[in-house]
Design goal:
With about 500 residues, the protein is of the alpha/beta class. It contains 23 helices and 9 strands. The protein has 4 domains: about 170 residues, P-loop containing nucleotide triphosphate hydrolases (Rossmann fold, 3-Layer(aba) Sandwich); about 60 residues, Helicase, Ruva Protein, domain 3 (Orthogonal Bundle); about 120 residues, Zinc Finger, Delta Prime, domain 3; about 120 residues, DnaA, N-terminal domain (GMP Synthetase, Chain A, domain 3), CATH 3.30.300. Helix 10 packs across helix 11, helix 14 packs antiparallel against helix 16 and helix 20 crosses helix 23. The longest helix is centred in the middle third of the chain and has 21 residues. The structure holds adenosine-5'-diphosphate, magnesium ion (MG) and zinc ion. Adenosine-5'-diphosphate (ADP) binds next to helix 1, helix 3 and helix 10.
Length: about 500
């Protein structure tokens, strides 16, 4: 049977784990001294080893020669757990088993002593997805844990867990894995698969994985399938739809010569080559981040994930540009990144950015570092959309073009939760400052509804997706008449939102 590469290469022991040494050490010491906690909470980004470690731990405490620092992976217990045959080791995915009944069932199962192995182990993945009642039920179990039961809760979003749950667990944080370590693993996996892959291809893959080893291996797999022979950087670029770093090197050279024409032709190559300009912008941000890193860290830069072949050319450019200009360009690119994704004409946005940067050097770009949003932005009629309230000057980074992004927020929100979408349409929306969305209602009940987790959660998720950062949501009840804050609204939208909020049905259309 075919198995995806990342499954084939699931680490089987703590020794095989890449990165996460602090996690391994804590657990191995506890295993050795038989002083394991009743419950562990594994937090960290996806694809960094949480599930893998939970399974290693389940074997290590139940191994015939254990509890030991490593499972033997040969005894009946290890093999049985590995194959998923041991009923004492349970894995549940809270994303699809969110309810109280699922947790009650789990509690039933862990109440009795283990039958096949030493410890029962309950692994709850994506635990933040549990419903409130399910959390309460889980909490009872954690407060009064049956003996010989080990809980492992895993989550990518620990901030969504009730504090009561967190405080009952020993928390272990999994970190993003460094480029150098990912590259090493990719090399090893390719070699064991008897494939040759060039160094720059390895680095490109490692870079694209953004710190997750699962993504790195999935990408490697795609590339290996795509090209039957030796893998070169071009193959990776073709599969990823990415461009080579040399483009950014050339763009930067053009910038230093103030050669706008050369830059526009480079951009033309990228756009007509069918590359996705959002991805291109991400790569540009990374390139300038790397320029900053080499300038700040010198020869240490390799440790922060700069490919060895690139340290020198990057250093040369970075020194010529200076930190101020690099920072300013980086800020400009970061703003561009947020806009380019949903822009109908991303290429034009890029051209405008190049134009501004080239004509003024770092000076125009410098302004991008100052807080934006002091002036009201142009609005299109007929849509609920944000206004700038008072912008807080100073420390917060400005979010670019809030108003322009708003239609996209509403579009995504409609898919995420039609109810929240409707509720938002019936309120007035503005930005209190760059990091806080304010929603105003005349009716207390609407205010409370919007303030509930049920409605805040989908809105937050969408805001994060669109703006690339967490925003706070603040619901405010305003006195009758929204007054100076009134926003004209599409009557059609208001009507349908009222119908949706009150779960109504249109009985008589004639009076509308
Ligand atoms: N720290 C790591 N060391 C080695 N391989 C890893 C690591 N993290 C992830 N992987 C690879 O990614 C796959 C998925 O990892 P997994 O443990 O399920 O991640 P998570 O549960 O954190 O999302 C594994 O099968 C393995 O191939
Ligand atoms: Mg997992
Ligand atoms: Zn064993």
């Amino acid at each position: 049977m075919y198995q995806a590469l990342y499954r084939q290469w699931r680490p089987m022991s703590f020794a095989e784990l890449v990165g996460q040494e602090h996690v391994a050490r804590t657990l191995q010491n506890a295993l050795e001294q038989e002083r394991l906690a009743h419950a562990y909470l594994f937090c960290g980004p996806r694809g960094t080893g949480k599930t893998s470690v939970a399974r290693i731990l389940a074997r290590a405490i139940n191994c015939k020669v254990g509890p030991a620092r490593e499972p033997c992976n040969l005894c009946a217990a290890c093999l049985g757990i590995q194959a998923g045959r041991v009923i004492d080791v349970l894995e549940i995915d809270a994303a699809s088993n969110r309810g109280i009944d699922d947790i009650r069932e789990l509690r039933e199962k862990v109440r009795y002593a283990p039958v096949e192995v030493r410890y029962k182990v309950a692994i709850i993945d994506e635990v933040h997805m549990l419903s409130q009642e399910a959390f309460n039920a889980l909490l009872k179990t954690l407060e009064d844990p049956p003996s010989r039961v080990l809980f492992v809760l895993a989550t990518t979003e620990p901030h969504k867990l009730p504090a009561t749950i967190v405080s009952r667990c020993q928390r272990l944080d999994f970190h993003l894995i460094g480029i150098t370590e990912i590259a090493e693993r990719l090399r090893a996996v390719a070699q064991l698969a008897n494939r040759t892959i060039s160094e720059d291809a390895v680095y490109l893959l490692a870079e694209e994985a953004n710190g997750g080893l699962r993504d790195a291996l999935s990408l490697l797999e795609q590339v290996l399938a795509y090209c039957p022979a030796e893998v070169a950087q071009e193959d990776v670029l073709a599969v990823l739809g990415a461009v080579g770093r040399d483009i950014f090197h050339a763009l930067t050279e053009a910038f230093m010569r103030r050669d706008l024409s050369a830059a526009l032709f480079l951009l033309d190559d990228v756009a007509t080559g069918g590359k996705d300009l959002h991805h291109f912008t991400q790569q540009a941000v990374r390139y300038y981040r790397d320029l900053m890193v080499v300038l700040a860290c010198g020869t240490e830069a390799e440790r922060l994930g700069i490919g060895p072949d690139w340290v020198q050319p990057l250093t040369k450019q970075a020194e010529a540009l200076g930190m101020g200009t690099i920072g300013a360009i980086l800020a400009e690119l970061h703003g561009l990144l947020a806009e380019v994704r949903w822009a109908t004409r991303p290429r034009l946005l890029w051209e405008l950015t190049l134009f501004r940067l080239f004509l003024s050097g770092g000076e125009v770009a410098q302004r991008a570092l100052e807080p934006a949003g002091m002036t009201p932005q142009a609005v299109s009629p007929g849509k609920s959309r944000p206004e700038q309230l008072a912008a807080a000057p100073g420390k917060v980074q400005p979010l670019p073009s809030l108003t322009r992004m708003w239609p996209r927020v509403m579009e995504l929100l409609k898919k995420e939760s039609i109810k929240t979408h409707a509720l938002l349409l019936s309120g007035d929306v503005g930005f209190r400052d760059a990091m806080t969305l304010e929603v105003r209602y005349e009716a207390q009940i609407h205010c409370e509804m919007m303030d509930s987790p049920e409605n805040k959660r989908p809105l937050k998720a969408v805001l994060k997706e669109v703006f690339g950062t967490e925003l706070a949501i603040c619901c405010v009840k305003v006195a009758n008449g929204i007054g100076s804050l009134t926003i004209e609204k599409d009557p059609e939208e208001m009507f349908s939102s009222a119908v949706e909020i009150f779960h109504g049905q249109v009985i008589d259309e004639s009076n509308r």
